[in-house]
Amino acid sequence: MSRLKLNKIVVENFQLIAGDTLSKVILSYQVFGRLMGTAPLVLVNHALTGNSQVLGENGWWNDLIGEHKTIDTQRYTVLAFNIPGNGFLDATNLIENYKAVATYDIAKLFWNALDILKVKEVFAVIGGSLGGAIAWEMATIRPQSVQNLIPIATSWKSSDWLIGNVLIQDLILNNSKNPIHDARVHAMLLYRTPESLHQKFKATIQEGNEIFQVESWLLHHGKKLHNRFNLASYKLMNHLLKTIDVLKNRTIEEMAKTITANVYLVSIDTDYFFTADEIRCCYTEMKKYKQNVSYHQIESKHGHDAFLIEYKQLHKILKSIFKL
């Protein structure tokens, strides 16, 4: 990938919810589409191994964002922050004490940056997986500053299943001789489903090799992430998944009545990471106290990763939101 120039904001003496203080946080970001202040602002939050490059060369949401796409860059300003410590184009901006940081802290940092950018209200905050969880946290921190909240393939609280898998990933990252590679190999199985892998490989041996195609595919993804990601970054991103909790000792009623945003909950029927059942439960509970909340479901064989694959279904869900 060609070297990209990132915009940067410095936040000093930032206090974490756990009590620690980060003396200096460099928050990098990219802006796409209309100039800041000239159009409604859409904030896109990236997932665990993602970054601020949401469109363009190597853009991970090119099928959803761009000119004449679902989120039309001729109509909107699209802003994407890098989660501090994700290492994107900057191996110096890392957070070594990763267990002191929570998703709440990342959401609070994003709001601090928006204050510096003189943004008072956001038209939409959208993200998948970890990015969606941060969107949730942002909406609860400033419940009247987001018009549309769109958390995709994520939930408002880390489940026991998710916390358990974060532990396994953390053990691999801290004990394996090849930690990023091996953790990624394990994680890829969580992001897909047995049906997805059978459809793709059908238990066949790779031609000219003595390993199964699925093994070759997993090893390829492990090597690919190893070549582009930093160990401290992976430890932080993985840890954040277990810290999701938007209620913060409040009742669901208190939280639901406070948020003024239109809330669009999007699940994936085969997601093992954030199950459709837990997202439906979230919808059912919120609907008791809030009218402008809706539930949508992507049907896919591909599991959690479907939010990066099923663009046509996602477009159908989102098109009414982003049609000004």
Brief summary:
It comes from Flavobacterium chuncheonense. The chain is α/β, with parallel strands linked by helices and 324 residues long.
Write the layout of secondary structure elements.
Elements: E1 7-15, E2 21-33, E3 41-45, E4 65-66, E5 71-72, E6 77-81, H1 103-116, E7 122-128, H2 130-141, E8 146-152, H3 160-175, H4 179-191, H5 194-201, H6 213-228, H7 231-240, H8 252-258, E9 262-268, H9 276-287, E10 293-298, H10 311-318
Parallel strand pairs: 3-6, 3-7, 4-5, 7-8, 8-9, 9-10
Antiparallel strand pairs: 1-2, 2-6
Helix pairs in contact: 1-2, 3-4, 3-7, 4-6
CATH superfamily label of the largest domain? Alpha/Beta hydrolase fold, catalytic domain
Q: What is the number of beta strands? A: 10
Question: Helix coverage percent of residues?
Answer: 25-40%
Distance between the termini: 34 Å
CATH topology of the largest domain: Rossmann fold
Sheet/helix structural class: alpha/beta
What value does the Rg take, in angstroms? 19 Å
Regions with pLDDT < 50 over 5+ consecutive residues? none
Order of helices and strands: EEEEEEHEHEHHHHHHEHEH
Estimate the mean pLDDT confidence.
94
Global shape: globular
- Spatial strand arrangement across the major sheet: 1-2-6-3-7-8-9-10
What is the helix tally?
A: 10
Strand content: 15-25%
The total tally of domains equals 2
**CATH class bucket of the largest domain:** Alpha Beta
Q: Please summarize the sheet with the most strands.
A: 8 strands, mixed
GO molecular function, one term: hydrolase activity
InterPro entries: AB_hydrolase_1, AB_hydrolase_fold, HAT_MetX-like
Protein name: Alpha/beta fold hydrolase
Domain AB hydrolase-1: 40-154
